[in-house]
Structure formats: structure tokens, C-alpha cells
Automatic annotation (TrEMBL):
InterPro entries: Glyco_trans_2-like, Glycosyltransf_2, Nucleotide-diphossugar_trans. It holds the Pfam family Glycos_transf_2. This is Glycosyltransferase family 2 protein. It comes from Rhizobium fabae. It comes from the Bacteria. Transmembrane segments: none annotated. Residues 16-128 form the Glycosyltransferase 2-like domain. CDD domains: Glyco_tranf_GTA_type.
Amino acid sequence: MTTMKISAVSDISVAVIIPAYNAGRYLAQTLQCVIDQTHKALEIVVVEDGSTDDTASICRRFAAGDARIRVLSTENRGVAAARNTGIGATTSGYIAFLDADDLWHPTYVERMLSALHPLPRAWGAVYALHRFIDPEGNCLRSGSSLSARDSILARHLVFRFVGNGSGFMIRRAVVDRIGGYDPSYARHGIGGCEDFDFELRTAEHFKIETVPLGLVGYRVHSEAMSSDKSRMARSLVAVSEQCIGRNPELPAFVVSCARASAHLYAFSRFAALKDWHSAASSLTYIYQHSPMLALGVVANLIYSKARRGARRAFSKALPAGEPKENNLQKFAEIDPLLPLVGGWSHFRSRSLLRRLSEIDRSGECAVATSRRGLDARRPKRPSSASM
């Protein structure tokens, strides 16, 4: 990033929306990472979503020390409704979303804004990649290294590049065009992937840029919404089906890959819960896409169980009380330019990404949303029976 680009955006205001529900354990770290951003022109709105812990008092303490922070208190309605409340309370031309337990690298807003602002208005959003962090803020591993830019609807529907709700910045024009986050998933008991739904609806109307760096610390802990494996599985499948339903012009190949990708994710979650009935249902969808892929999924499940059993046996054989090495590094101390690794698999292959890239470039996914106009602001409501 050049000095010229940095100076060109330094005075541009960015709204930061932080929904917070019972986030007392992590909220102070999250707010501090926003305060420490190198980009200072921020409109910071914390939506305190009916918490029963000390979230509200933490919000008030930080707001008293930084005039940029406002706190909005609401009854508990879920993350989508909270984000919408925050959007409605801000005026900045750019909006960034951060979950109350995640972290940003200090240069996150600066890099994201410098990437998106110079582009034509047809580019509605920018996203960054992430690293997984533990409850103490230590980096566990990198997230996927895969990214794509420009018209990415087909690729994102299958590959899900963003991976969480804390790595997405939009122009306000996106909300003016597609509306906000869809709160009906939570009302149907399948909340969890509203961010993916919002990203897909954005991709239906706008080109999307990427900053392919691990600038987001995505926290893994037992209280996180993503820890509910069954709900997340059903949510992802529902979001994928909603996108397919909105866009009947999607090529059959894309639809088949999207369903297989969603059900691969769902199968892994159901299998972890030993919900074999739901896992079998997802495996049926995978088999319809590719019998060989379904066989590979089963073989991988057997192999994984055998490997975990061997690890447990090895762990029991170690001398009792022997200290474990801890070489973990704090997320804030990691050089953001260090490359991420991973993301490829038997299914998410380079050949599949190339083919989907060709479809995106060809305009085959140039869906008819422009003809539907404002109907795109009112997506069809998901059903808990979407699976």
C-alpha cells in the first residue's frame, strides 16, 4: 500500500458495527482493537443485544473514554437484527462489521478502505481472510488462503471465501440496493450463516474486491454461535438453497457444486455430533453430485476416527504430568503479510475453481436481479425444513 493511497482515504469515515450479546469475556479486547486502528475516522456503534452479563457496563466504560463509540441497547433479537440496528444508526459511506469476540489487525480498516474506495461504484464490497485464535487471543492456525475478486457469485457460493462475519466491508450503496441482514433465519431457529447470505446477495448485484491477508482473528470458543454444529449445518444449507432459489439462471453445474459443498460442510458437523440420520441425508445429496466424492467422504470419516483413536492411545502412553509445549503467538504480533496456507481439498480443487471462474467471467451468473429491482430487498424467508 502506498503513502498516496493511505492519505487519500485517511479522512473518509467508516462505520464499525459490533453486535454484542453476553460478550463480556472478549468485548474489551474487541473494542480495543478497533480503537487501535491506524485509520482514525471511525463511527463505532456497539449494539448491546439484551445481554445478561457485564457486556453493557463494558460498553459504557469504553464509550466514556472514546467519543467515537456509541452504545445502542435493544432486546435480544439476534445478530442480524443487531447489525441492521447499527446500520440504521450510522451515516458513513462505508460500513465494516465485527463480531464482539473477534479481532482485527491494526491496519485492517486502512487496508480494506484503500482497496475498495478507488474502485468504480460497481464494486460494492471488500473482504479479508482470517486466522483462527483461541480464547486468550493466541493464533491457532491460519484460515483458508483461497480468495477471488470481481464477479464472484458462482465461486463464493461454492468456496465461501470470507468464512465469518468480521471480514466484510461494504459501501452504503449495497444496503440501499439489497437491504440489510436477514433476521428470519434466527426466527426459524437456524441462525448462524446470515453473514454468508448477506455476502451472496451482495455478489448478486456488485463486484467484490479482496485483501488476501489474514487480517481477522476469528475466535474459537464453546460459547460462540458457530459452536452449535447442528444449527450451523442447517443454516448453511438453507442459505445456499435461498441463493439458488433467487437465481434460477445459475448453471446446473454451479447448483450441483453448491449443494455438494453445503452438504459436505453439513455432513462433517452432523458426523461430529453422531447425528447419523442427518449425516446420511447430507451424504445422499453429495452422492447425487458425485458417487466417488461420497465414497471419499465416508473413507475420510473412517480414517479420521482411526487417527483420533491412535492419538488418544499415544497421549495415554505419555508420562503423567509432562508439560505440553506452547509455541502459540498472539494474533496482534503476527505479521499480516505472512502467507496463509490451506483451503484446497479433494472437492475444492484448482480445476473446480478455474471452471467456476470461467462461469463468473462469462456472465452466466449475471442473474436477473436487476429486473427484479427492489424485490431483492425482500428475500424469501427460509424454512427450518430447508434440508
